[in-house]
Specification:
Chain B: Belongs to the binding-protein-dependent transport system permease family. Chain B: Its main location: membrane. Chain B: This is ABC transporter permease subunit. The complex is a heterotrimer of chains A (285), B (280) and C (346). Helix content of chain B is 80%, strand content 0%. Chain B has 280 residues and is mainly alpha-helical. Chain B folds into two domains: 52 residues, no CATH class; 217 residues, MetI-like fold, CATH 1.10.3720. In chain B, α10 packs antiparallel against α11. The radius of gyration of chain B is 24 Å and the shape is globular. Chain C is an alpha+beta fold. The chains are: A mainly alpha (285), B mainly alpha (280), C alpha+beta (346). The interface between B and C is medium-sized, with 31 and 37 residues.
Chain lengths: 285, 280, 346
Amino acid sequence: MARTGSSKSKIMLMALVPLLIWVFAFEIIPVFQMVVMSFQNSDGLGFTLDQYYKGLTTSLYLEAMKNSIVISINSSVAAMIIALFVAYSITRFTTGIRDQLLMVSNMMTNFAGVPLAFAYMILMGNNGALLLLLERMGVEAAGSFDLYSQTGVTQLYIYYQTPLAILLVYPIFYGIRTEWKEAASLLGASTWKFWRYIGIPVLLPGLLGTFSLLIANALGAYATAYALTGISFNLLTIRIAALVSGDIFPNFQLGSALAVILAIIMIFSLVVNELMLRWSRRRGT
Amino acid sequence: MSHDTTKKTKGLFWHQAVIALLLIYLFLPVMATLLLSLAKEWQSELVPHHYTLQWYVEIFTDVRFISAMGRSVLVSAITVIISLMIMVPAIFVIAVYLPKWEKLLQIAVLLPFAFPPVVTAIGLIKIYSSGPIAISGTIWILVGAYFILILPFSYQSIRNSLRTIHAKDLMEAAEILGAGKITAFVQVILPNILPGILISSLLSFSLIFGEFVYANLLVGGSFETIQIYLFNKMRTGGQTASAVVITYFILIFIISGFIIKLGRWKPKEYVASTIAKGGE
Amino acid sequence: MSYVKIEGVSKYFGSTKVLNNISLSIEEGEFITLLGPSGCGKSTLLRAIAGLNDLSSGDIYVGDKKITHLPSKDREVGMVFQSYALFPNLNVFQNIAFGLKMEKMDKEQYTVKVEEMVELIDLKGKENMYPGQLSGGQQQRVALARALIKKPKILLLDEPLSALDAQIRRTLRNEIRLIQRKLNMTTIFVTHDQEEALTISDRIFVMNHGDIEQEGGPRSIYTSPETEFVARFIGNYNVLKKSELETTGARLVSENELFAIRPEAISIFPLAKEGHNMDETINIICEAEVVMSTVLGNVMRFDMDVKGIGITVDALNESKIHWIKNGMTVQIAIPIEECKGLRIPS
């Protein structure tokens, strides 16, 4: 091996070539191509900021962005709150039950997109079984519930974000060590004071990180809303897909510009996640 | 003492209630779908009155359903196998011999998180619908895109498997005992990372099986996967669609079961590695 | 004729030098130890001998053969790793047999040899167990057997005991030494534990910052450290500058600037004149205040203050020293011949 190291590592590098080619062909070049297109005019020529201008001034697209962001934040907040309660409860059970519950959460993350939209139609669509039940129980609001509205779509987003949020929040809770609570109570801290001064500050970076991951997850989602409402519900992903799938007038350049905007919003939330991770790591938790 | 225990059981009761509510919340849509798939008909009633298996019979005798299933299995299997053949050697080489490349690999692996399928699809359609590699509308563009989609999962699990077995030490030990690099890899590394690889393969498999965005945007009707089939069925026949959803759910359930089984199969060195860590 | 010869070996990682032109030689059947703190280069040197690291310059010979450029598998060395590195998918028997299988030896032939080895390491009846079912000590025995079965020319031990608890560590240490003697196996042992090094080795090479600071038998390394690093690393020596030693009243003729004094070489007496009858021509006698005393089992350690200079004194923990109390002023006697002049490493 000695001093022939460099030629050996050249052979080693060969093992990376297929992966590199693949990543370039199906990830880097397409993304690059998209960025290039976003600066072209609608005939695919020249260099122009028109597409961005159009994307950022047309009310249809502005509303799509707003809807995407609002629905992402709302569903992430709701899923986080559910996950906080559930994850804390999960830590209270024995290891066996804990593993099973996590496995159920893991399995349910697969129940998203088209099957989920369909199941919700049965449950809460027009004449949905759950709505009928609620109405008979005297819940008036059930009668006016519209699954195909923003409130309805948000329900689906909350549903598929919840298991993911549980899977992400649980390990953070698990990081709170019993010895800390014991140490704090020996030092005279009440339960409330423990959470106020130790528990929450320790959990916070992880929770904020999880939150930004959920936001990114919701921002990029397309299948669920599309399966439920077709292209009628105005989300950024649905607008982008409609612009490139060519049903009406395909406009790759405008689609690309919107996609770049979406990617920037997502990268922003992922950067927040990374910063939060670093913050919590630096403090050694 | 007794006061303490009642307090504890009372606490546990609340936790059980929380979990019960969660399970109801998560399984309610599945249950509703299951009822619909077994109902003779179900309209404006709380629960159906007559039950039947006819919708299952219908889909399992429908050639279109069977072929859609077949296509989904095919594209998932091809992608997972290619991914393993490329990823296992690449990650192994980086982990053991070229640790400097790890950062670059991590970036490549994280990119799919920043660029969701809707975004990547634009470039893919543009590049592969014409020109030298016109594979748009075929299975191959899906394989290409799905490979990237499962990259984070396969990377994570292969990397973790290599880490738990101390792959570098094992390779060195084997080589000092006279094994060549390839023999050492095949006899010592591969058998020990197998459970981890299988788990990641199953996860990837179920991920691809449930994928809709690429399938819809890149191939659409020309390569009807199970998700596209379901999407089309949803509009025409509600009850057959519910049978499809339940079939899909059972499949996920079975795959999850395998994953649990494999996950319990701990690497045999488990105890030793924790001891070794303690000494460092 | 030395059996293992290392000549002018250097190793850079980027621009950091981890091995600085190291040369050493080892006799056949000798047990030598590379001792030093983490990052001193000891493991890098060991791994270079095994062919797991390449070298920037220098050569390694075993017997008469230059092995500098040979791949690991052709070097005929055996190695035991800190993490054991047992193959988790193979049982005890298969782990030990692995090296022989690689030589394409027949099953009948290697079964006999493996059984011999299993007996040697005292694990009879455990052949079918997997590494995960064994204790740390048992795993390390298997690793030892696996390394020895091919009758390697040298046995390399990379901190093999550091993951074990104190009790098992001592037993296994003695066993390794017994087996090594029995097989007359040339052995290179790497450790950061000076007690381990002193008890197990024929010769010790103390390493620091990629250099060998001192080599010698355990006794000479312990009693005659040559540098400040060795004095501090090996045994809690008092290391004093010439000027500090002179404030205690010493008149020294030596050229050295630094001196090391073993704590147990110093004796303590009551202040009263009749308290001692030491010869002031061969002892430095001075007053000292007892700052702190610590019980270290059979030894008491006293931290003393002599005119602002801290000096540690060890004494056997017996009733005749129990008069010494914290805060007391006492007299201490430092034998002048125990003030070992230290070399300043270049």
